[in-house]
Design brief:
The structure holds 2 protein chains of 2 kinds. By secondary structure, chain A is an alpha/beta fold. In chain A, the strands form 2 sheets. Chain A has a 5-stranded mixed beta sheet with strand order 5-4-3-6-7. Chain A has a two-stranded antiparallel ribbon with strand order 1-2. Chain A is elongated. By secondary structure, chain B is mostly helical. Chain B contains 5 helices and no strands. The chains are: A alpha/beta, B mainly alpha. Chains A and B meet through helix 4 of A and helix 3 and helix 4 of B.
Amino acid sequence: MTRRLLLLLPLLLFLVTAVYLARQLLSGRDPAHVPSALIGKSVPETILPPLKAGKPGFARVDFGTRDFPADPVLVNVFASWCVPCRAEHPYISALGRLEGVALYGFNVKDERKAALDWLQELGDPYARIGFDPAGRNAVEWGVYGYPETFLISPEGIVIYKHVGPLHPELIEREIMPRLRDFREGRGG
Amino acid sequence: MNRSVFFLPGCILLVLFVGIMASPAVESAPSDMLSEPKLEARARALAKDIRCLVCQNQSIDDSDADLARDLRLLVRERLLAGDSDDQVRDYLVARYGAYVLMTPPWGPATLLLWLGPGLIFLIGASLIVLRVFRSGRRTGPETGAADADGRP
């Protein structure tokens, strides 16, 4: 009798492993997605010079703090050579028109002229744009893909990060609820 | 001489295999390398343990991606600033998370990851030993007869 049970053991092990792996496969999670190490922490201390004349860059002081809360900010990492950035731009712009969230652009690994032309063509919804041609400041933010979007709370804490282009379904599912939390005084 | 039909393709594959295995890892461009050889050696060693987050199965030492080069330069920058190897790793983990290191951290969450293969090996090995032990008892050295399973 015990021999029969022992014979079943490999099958059992296989089934347990299969269920475990199937759950991951079917969950729709992207295993290549690297979660941000900055969630729950203050915005990095980088100082980003301006991209264009007449529009400032940004640094940590341009976000709210616990003592002096400000508007929540959407920091959008983009580059003119990045095709998905182009695709998400209308949705980013629309979100900027929504009351209560400021848009900061974070232009990385780009040429100034190319970036300016890109903004000229597609529209510039950003209140501030930081310029990081070498990508060194982007490393401080843990940027590894393009585009990326960070949501910063009124207290200057990184609440949420998305790697990849934004689209309406994602905005509705991830960003709007968090924005509502800020407006109603929770979260952050 | 009777050669099998697989001989020539086999030779070609062997040559290709050796060629691929012998190719060196991507090296930093000469201008990226540090002038102090000990620091440069540390930079290379660290780079082999840091994951390129774009091509995630490659270290930044192997990967051609832009991000890989940026991180290779960053490692050298931190070494020049006087960081220890651990400090360089911590610097990257603080910004990118534990997944940026090729070697998983040792902690409660990764216990199964580290011990799993060893455990499976032990279980398998003990099953084999038990099996052999039982067979040994059934058929003593004086009989060459098959045991109950039909095995000699």
